[in-house]
């Protein structure tokens, strides 16, 4: 399995959790939405951590590009963390309109970010790290499984 | 600063003003087209060849559609295809005024029957298209076609070159009084422009945005790879049939084109029915309207391939035009503008947030869903009226044109308000 295939699959998994949370919120069940969004948050943060602690350092070490694409991705991770926290706050306050606003912004942010990773960065990783990609995928698999 | 340079080499986000200027001026052309329908009313609906009909068509296709498409491509080529457009700000600075003024000159040239205006329009549009096609082509043709979207982008750009070239040729023929079969050429020009450029580009973008933003399953790979090729093949066969005067081939090509389009529309409707977003937002509703209107237009095209007598009725091509242009492409494009613009504005604020802890307003605070919904209802009312006006132009052209102008103006107003809110937040954030 390539790095791209594996992490793309995890993107889709995060999408599923996002959709479940949004649907609960739309049905008016904010408790269920809070639980589902909590799962989404955990999955996304594990994904970010896996990239930031395992994949990006490997890419940076191999290419010597520490201020390149990985830096942009880290910055966008930070922006998404803020949006996710704001959405969590909105759900806790019972403000579903605010939640939908944050969720909409988050979804577009997340998808354009995924697009850049899937179309540009992951293929670069697979190319640059071809000799160690099997090992990297195994490590990422272990990290993304979570607790 | 060294890091910033490195960031840009990957991110390649053009300055906000590069795409935004196209988006903010495009709705003005909808207003002009609407007013033209209201004023010229009966004359415009008498035939697709009347000066008013030609002017209105190009206000919609170049003034609105092409403007938004080129502005959007400047923004999304790097993200969609990893194709970095060199000097996006410069390209926008040339193409935007060239396209806007060129379209106005073309409309005046048609309406006044003035060769000077037509030549002026030809010059401006030729420069704009050459610059854009050269820059975008240089970026995209160096990227390998690793996805159906990238293949679609490449083929659509070729089709744009053919549509633009044939348009310029006809413009010169018209202004210079050359003896060329204009009606047959005009059909080809419309085919390359609407199916080849706009249709393939729409599909290429849909392959990416429909699954991502509406959380639907992905497009099946094989049809997605083949759709752009089938459309180009149909257009090539159709062009050959015109050269050879081969009627059977022309009908077969038209049938292939219509069936390819129908397959894409049905596939998209099917995917959308499986979407997992909780709410039907404005973009989704615009797309639904666009898909059904396009389906109706494509069925007309299919029917016409087998029963060519139908299209000899003057109302036939006009009805087709209203369905495919207003109900179809305009609806798709406005629906996407309502997603792209709030996001770009938000993204820009986010990057400029100089004061830590100062929250950036979310997208729906920049452009409220209620405002978009009201504009959308007006737009679809205008579409319904325009459709009816094809059959009763004497009574309905005036209200149809006025409501359409209102819907266009409202779109412009909504987008401008969003840009102004962005500006206020930006100024507040940096002070």
UniProtKB/TrEMBL annotation, chain A:
InterPro entries: Hemerythrin-like. Residues 3-125 form the Hemerythrin-like domain. Coiled coil: none annotated. It comes from the Bacteria. It holds the Pfam family Hemerythrin. One of its GO terms (cellular component) is plasma membrane. This is Hemerythrin.
Automatic annotation (TrEMBL), chain B:
It comes from Azonexus hydrophilus. The chain crosses the membrane at residues 20-39, 59-77, 89-111, 117-141, 153-180, 192-213, 225-244, 290-310, 316-338, 375-391, 397-416. This is Uncharacterized protein. Keywords: Membrane, Transmembrane, Transmembrane helix. It comes from the Bacteria.
């Amino acid at each position: 399995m390539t790095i791209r295939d594996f992490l793309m699959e995890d993107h889709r998994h995060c999408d599923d959790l996002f959709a479940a949370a949004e649907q609960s919120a739309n049905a008016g069940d904010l408790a269920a939405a809070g639980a589902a969004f909590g799962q989404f948050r955990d999955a996304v943060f594990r994904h970010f951590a896996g990239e930031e602690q395992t994949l990006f350092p490997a890419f940076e070490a191999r290419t010597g590009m520490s201020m390149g694409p990985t830096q942009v991705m880290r910055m966008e991770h930070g922006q998404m963390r803020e949006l996710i926290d704001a959405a969590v706050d909105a759900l806790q306050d019972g403000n579903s309109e605010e939640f939908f606003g944050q969720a909409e912004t988050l979804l577009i942010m997340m998808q354009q970010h995924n697009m850049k990773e899937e179309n540009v960065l992951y293929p670069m990783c697979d190319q640059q790290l071809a000799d160690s990609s099997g090992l990297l995928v195994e490590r990422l698999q272990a990290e993304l499984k979570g607790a | 600063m060294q890091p910033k340079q490195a960031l840009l080499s990957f991110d390649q986000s053009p300055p906000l003003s590069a795409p935004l200027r196209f988006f903010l001026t495009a709705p003005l052309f909808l207003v002009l087209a609407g007013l033209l329908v209201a004023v010229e009313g009966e004359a415009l609906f008498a035939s697709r060849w009347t000066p008013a009909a030609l002017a209105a068509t190009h206000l919609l296709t170049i003034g609105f559609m092409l403007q938004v498409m080129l502005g959007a491509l400047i923004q999304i080529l790097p993200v969609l295809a990893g194709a970095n457009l060199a000097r996006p700000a410069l390209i926008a600075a040339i193409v935007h005024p060239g396209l806007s003024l060129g379209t106005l000159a073309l409309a005046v040239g048609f309406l006044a029957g003035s060769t000077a205006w037509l030549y002026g329009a030809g010059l401006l549009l030729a420069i704009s298209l050459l610059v854009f096609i050269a820059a975008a082509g240089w970026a995209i043709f160096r990227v390998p076609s690793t996805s159906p979207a990238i293949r679609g982008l490449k083929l659509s750009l070729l089709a744009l070159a053919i549509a633009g070239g044939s348009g310029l040729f006809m413009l010169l023929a018209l202004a210079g009084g050359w003896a060329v079969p204009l009606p047959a050429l005009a059909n080809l020009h419309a085919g390359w422009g609407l199916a080849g450029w706009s249709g393939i580009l729409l599909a290429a973008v849909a392959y990416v945005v429909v699954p991502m933003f509406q959380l639907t399953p992905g497009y099946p790979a094989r049809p997605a790879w083949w759709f752009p090729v089938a459309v180009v093949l149909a257009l090539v066969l159709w062009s050959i049939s015109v050269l050879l005067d081969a009627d059977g081939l022309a009908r077969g090509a038209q049938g292939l084109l219509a069936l390819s389009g129908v397959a894409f529309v049905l596939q998209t409707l099917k995917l959308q029915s499986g979407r997992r977003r909780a709410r039907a937002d404005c973009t989704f509703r615009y797309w639904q309207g666009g898909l059904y209107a396009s389906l109706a237009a494509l069925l007309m095209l299919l029917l016409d391939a087998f029963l060519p007598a139908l299209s000899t009725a003057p109302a036939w091509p006009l009805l087709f035009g209203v369905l495919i242009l207003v109900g179809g492409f305009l609806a798709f494009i406005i629906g996407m503008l309502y997603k792209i613009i709030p996001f770009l504005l938000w993204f820009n604020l986010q990057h400029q947030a100089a004061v830590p802890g100062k929250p950036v307003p979310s997208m729906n605070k920049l452009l409220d869903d209620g405002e978009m919904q009201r504009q959308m209802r007006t737009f679809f009312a205008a579409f319904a009226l325009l459709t009816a006006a094809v059959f009763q132009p004497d009574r309905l052209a005036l209200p149809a044109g006025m409501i359409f102008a209102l819907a266009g103006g409202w779109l412009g107003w909504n987008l401008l308000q969003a840009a102004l809110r962005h500006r206020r937040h930006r100024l507040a954030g940096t002070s």
